Amino acid sequence: MRGPGGAWAQTIASSMTRENVATELGSGPECIARAVQLLREGEVVGLPTETVYGLGADALQPEAVAKIFEAKERPYFDPLIVHLPSVDWLERLTDVPASSRALVGRLMEAFWPGPLTLVLPRRPLVPDLVTSGLDSVAIRMSAHPVFQAVATAFGGPLAAPSANRFGRISPTCAEDVRKELDGRIPLIVDGGPTEHGIESTIVAVEGTALRILRSGPITADRLAQFGEVRMAGTGQKIESPGQLKSHYAPRTPMSLGDVAGGGKNVGLLAWTGAGHGFGAIEILSATGDLREAAATLFAKMRRLDEAGLERIVAQPVPEHGLGIAIMDRLRKASYREG
Ligand code: TXA
Ligand code: MG
After folding, report:
1. Are strands 228-231 and 54-58 parallel, antiparallel or unpaired?
2. 249 Cα: distance to centroid of ligand 2 (angstroms)
């Protein structure tokens, strides 16, 4: 059975999870060479991208891809993004219909390498495990120099989800990858804190139109210059298995709320200004800069999560431009069943 909700959905890989691997953390040319060697051996490696850190593996080796799911305890119904070493790989992995070719070409020209992921019809070369049995595959090219160095030397496509345990906060620095996956992966390559701080924008190309499946650094306004833009998530059906209601979540319960009335056991994730009477406060951007807010969002959420609080209140940010992607993350991090 193909597609989300099918046979794939029944298995969560946690029973296979390794807990006793020695996790190295390093940087520089030798570390990059070691990463490439491990990837060739079918291992998983933590790698920096310009959005968040990823957990990379050879996208064409199902056994290597399986290790990603195991390390993250990610359910098999949630497909992975494939990162290309060069644009010529697009033709080998995807079958872009003639009606979409011009649009795809213009998007690649404008945004690759960079934080835009395109969902396109796939070719059989892409393993089922990568796409969760879907007929499409999500593809991007990272602009991070360290990721590019690894991908180029490796010479093939790398499957890489964010390097966090399933449902948790995405890591934006190497140390945060270690907090998520220590003992489960052999190597983390440190490329410094990530530039954008939130995951890539994901769009499905539908003829000459675009459907945004996940908002991110490339905003709807910018995409609208290339074709009609539709927003996913208005219908009942989950179009991207990653559109789960709960995601990016701290362990401490979080809710969206206002800056008034906290208490010493409550933390505040504020937009521009401090509230009072909270046990801990993190301000996303004192100057009201949405870029700064996105770039530091997950690190600040993680700091509050580590502060031993009973709950966290997140103040909404203005919901335009990059604010749409930030509010998406805050809502999912705050979502509670029931
Ligand atoms: O910025 C990013 O995109 C980061 C870095 C590491 O590249 N990666 C990332 O991957 O955020 P991940 O696995 O955490 O999120 C990928 C999302 C998932 O929600 C998944 O459901 C969706 O992409 N996705 C993957 N393949 C898809 C497909 N064929 N159709 C629809 N959605 C897809
Ligand atoms: Mg993720």
Report:
1. unpaired
2. 11
pTM of the model: 0.91
Average pLDDT, the chain: 91
Say what the pLDDT of residue 261 is: 67
Distance set, CA 43 to CA 17, 146, 178, 246 (Å):
14, 18, 16, 29
Q: Is 279 in the pocket of ligand 1 (CB under 6 A)?
A: no
Report which protein residue has its CA nearest ligand 1's atom 27: 138
Contact 199, 298 (CB under 8 A): no
> How far apart, in Å, do the first and last CA atoms of the chain sit?
30
Q: List C-alpha distances in Å: 210 to 31, 101, 203, 217, 298.
A: 39, 13, 6, 16, 27
Euclidean distance between CA atoms 195 and 51, whole angstroms:
6
What percent of the chain has pLDDT above 70? 91
The token pair at 191 is 């490329």
